[in-house]
Specification:
Layout (H helix, E strand, L loop, with lengths): L8 E2 L1 H8 L8 H5 L2 E2 H9 L3 H9 L4 H8 L3 H6 L8 H10 L2 H29 L7
Antiparallel strand pairs: 1-2
Length: about 130
């Protein structure tokens, strides 16, 4: 006799993170319940209107805000952005182009260039034949 399998569930915060939405902006029934993997898959495959609206207009969680602004999460904090922002607020920040945002974007661009350089260097090293070991 095989034991009955219980569905894997996750906390609403985990599900919100996987969906890329700000938990406090989700409906109360989402925040108060648990989400099974099957339910999460259904939300991803066929998002309800509230999820589409959150993804479109926010408020967005910090990782999404950082990605939309082209900076790191730490860069957001250095710029004084610690709360979730709406799409409108993000667009206003982009339009204003404050000095901290320009600086953080430049920093992020340098980080990306360095990551590419390291990846290329490692690929070159992997292609080089190794000599005999003594």
């Amino acid at each position: 006799m095989t034991p009955h399998k219980t569905p894997q569930t996750m906390k609403p915060a985990t599900a919100a993170k996987k969906l890329g939405v700000y938990l406090e902006a989700t409906p109360a029934e989402f925040q108060e319940g648990v989400v099974s993997r099957t339910e999460l898959s259904a939300l991803q495959a066929d998002p309800p209107e509230w999820l589409l609206e959150l993804r479109r207009n926010g408020p967005h969680p910090r990782p999404v805000v950082a990605a939309k602004l082209g900076v790191s999460i730490a860069g957001l904090a250095r710029g004084g952005v610690t709360e979730a922002l709406t799409t409108e607020q993000i667009e206003a920040l982009k339009a204003d182009g404050p000095e901290w945002l320009q600086r953080e974007r430049a920093t992020q661009a340098e980080v990306r260039k360095e990551a590419v350089r390291i990846k290329e260097r490692n690929a070159e090293r992997a292609e080089q034949p190794r000599g005999p070991r003594a």
